[in-house]
Amino acid sequence: MADVFDRGRRSDIMRQIRSSDTQPELVVRSYLHRAGFRFRLHAKQLPGKPDIVLPRLKTVIEVHGCLWHGHKNCRRGRRPKSNIDYWNRKIDGNIARDTANAKLLRKIGWRRLVVWECGIISKPEPTMRRLISWLNRGID
């Protein structure tokens, strides 16, 4: 199926997609702050520059977009049907990079939690309760 937009318009649309400070990420940060957690953002010294870093708990939280990170069995994670080779390479590369970064984080002693966009959008309260509960288990 041909794109309904010309190349210039499609480029403008894609340029507006953010890689940080996305709406799901802002929701997670807001909940964490209200729950009393203090954190850093996008720590460059850690593998993969995680979205949210809780240094005191030696924990990182990554807020993943379902499409961009290949969320399995998720309606939002379905791959586009146009330009299939490009999207498969892009998403598979993101998944491989995420896996490698997760191993590196584990190797240097950091805990990692992935929060998916669909959970934040469709069921924010239960998703955030699980996140806060998981973080509280890490407090000594």
Can you walk through the features of this model?
A 4-stranded mixed beta sheet has the order 1-2-3-4, sandwiched between helices. It has one domain: Endonuclease, Chain A. Strand 3, helix 3 and strand 4 form a beta-alpha-beta unit. It has helices spanning 7-15, 23-34, 84-107, 117-122, 124-137, and strands at residues 40-41, 52-54, 59-64, 111-116. The mean pLDDT is 88. The chain is globular, with a radius of gyration of 17 Å. The chain is of the alpha+beta class and 140 residues long.
Indicate the percent of residues in helices: 40-55%
Average pLDDT score: 88
Number of domains: 1
Q: Secondary-structure element order, as H and E?
A: HHEEEHEHH
CATH class reads Alpha Beta
- Binned strand content: 5-15%
- Main sheet, how many strands, which sense, barrel? 4 strands, mixed
Shape: globular
What's the Cα radius of gyration?
17 Å
**Strand order in the sheet with the most strands:** 1-2-3-4
CATH-derived architecture: 3-Layer(aba) Sandwich
CATH topology: Endonuclease, Chain A
Low-confidence residue ranges? none
With helices defined by DSSP (H or I, 4 residues minimum), what is the helix count?
A: 5
Record field, number of beta strands: 4
The CATH superfamily turns out to be: VSR Endonuclease
Q: Give the N-terminus to C-terminus distance in angstroms.
A: 55 Å
Describe the secondary-structure layout:
Layout: H1 7-15, H2 23-34, E1 40-41, E2 52-54, E3 59-64, H3 84-107, E4 111-116, H4 117-122, H5 124-137
Parallel strand pairs: 3-4
Antiparallel strand pairs: 1-2, 2-3
